[in-house]
Amino acid sequence: MNNIMKQFMKASRIRVLPVMLIPVALGALGAFVWDGNFNFWLFLLTLVGSGAAHLFSNMINDLWDYYNGTDEAAKQAEGAISTNSGYLTNGTWSIGLFATVTWSLFGIAAISGIILSIISGWPVIVFGGLGGLIAYFYVAPPIRFGYRGKGYSEVAILLSFGILPVAGAYYVQSSQLDYRALLLSLPIGLLTTLILFNHHFLHWQGDKQAGKKTLVVVWGEQRALVFSRWLLVLAYVSLVICVLAGALPWYALLAVLTAIPLYSVYGKLKEQNPSHAYLPLMGGSVKATNRCGLILIIALVIQGLI
To answer: How much is the pTM?
Structure first.
């Protein structure tokens, strides 16, 4: 049983789950601070549903990348670092088992969304449905956001890991919308977009061979690195805007400090780098996102209690 759980955790890439749970927590805390509304059981069900949706997204992406040949190309490309679980390319799990677990996660997310919509209102289905469509068509035909190289995938990630979970979690608690929820979604949404953008540096050669036109493939390393830096700056500028607009308390500005370790990584990179040189950038992106999100959560909890 323990081995099965370990396999599931690796197949679903559960270690990255905080990038979904953090925006959900922020949205729910926004309702607590701004409106005085917070239902623990609704919050818990929102976490379960959104978490299952995120793991579904991870696994459906692996499934379609396998079908499209992207994972195999990344495995064969010299120097490229594969970021998928490897369960399909290595034959650890059969396609049937992988697909069954994937769609079971979708079922958990769908049931959670239906229950929440009955309690909080039909717009919950809209938030969840849009997230589900984005998750599926990120690499699935005919849309394949991640293969088009025109910024569609970045917009999709901003929506899926920023605007939709924050605004959706806020709506679940309050049954209304607020412009502050949109603002609050931007710092964490942009930082998560930065994670997904930077991970393309690890295997862009394999993506190019498989015809996956990420912005790194289309622009090349030099231009993509410039964009990556600006995306980092934009994320923290949006945090300052949140404070100025009243969506966050002033002491949430402490989260700006989380940008320093990540920004220092850029100075160690050249215009062209081997794939392994981008591992610190990827790791720094994840740490900055999680640390920033945690500080924002703590800031909202303090504001709500005092």
So the answer is: 0.89
